[in-house]
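Methods — Computational structure assignment.
A single polypeptide chain was analysed. Its primary sequence is given first, followed by the predicted tertiary structure written as structure tokens.
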Amino acid sequence: MSDIARDGERARSMRGESHPLPPRAFILDCFGRGGSNIVWNMIGSSPDVLVPSREWHQGVFGQHHRLRKTMRAMGRVIDWNAVPGFTRIAAARTARTISPEAWAEKPDATATVLKVMDFHIVFASAIEAGFDWSRHIVLMRHPLPMCEGLIRGGESEARAASSYNGVAANMARAARRPDALSVRFEDMIADPASFYRRLATDLALPPSPDGLVRFMQKKFGAARTTADHGGRDVVRIAPEELRERIDANVNRDAVARLTAEQRRRLWQATADAAATLGYGETDF
């Protein structure tokens, strides 16, 4: 970054303004409770990629939950990219989620990684319009452990299955976009270091100079509840250390917490959606 650019960044920071968005975006389409924080930070480990301080919907809609829900529902029938002003507003608010500290750490970054959760994937075209280039990463998970997590978070069984089906449909559409990369939660927990290296290679991400990976420390699996998500401190660790922090049995343990009848009902309700993502009944 040139001295002029650095002076401009300092001036913007003093005025409380945000830095412009970088020209490129990696759009992580994901389930809530689907390992998204891990993959979000894996991508953001590259010196070329900035990590926003908030998820995309939080940055754009803030605490306006009803407005967000209404606009999300409207996104099933309209293209928000075609609505005058929305793309510009969304891009400006997204830019504010990238802190001056993030820019100071990676002054030459050309990309950001946006975490777009659940039904907010319907805003894909409007998100893409804020950048010169974008690529989708679709992070999938098997419905049985996914639904178990939703049920443990307070959803009814029927609501959990319905949510999975709706988000899976959004994911299937995103996966059909040119150059989209589909990855599985199951592969990530099986061998996190190998998963990270494949992901970096597939996305052509320059590695960090120290070879370390960003990892957000928070509660996962059975330890996670609606009220207590644990800490959110980000640490930097060697890829091989990921295995110490990610439980390879988290899916199997989640399914084991379901009764046989719950498993039967949930699979019956989600099998078609799971098939669109390439899952069979026991692929967890």
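Note: Residues 157-175 form the longest helix (19 residues).
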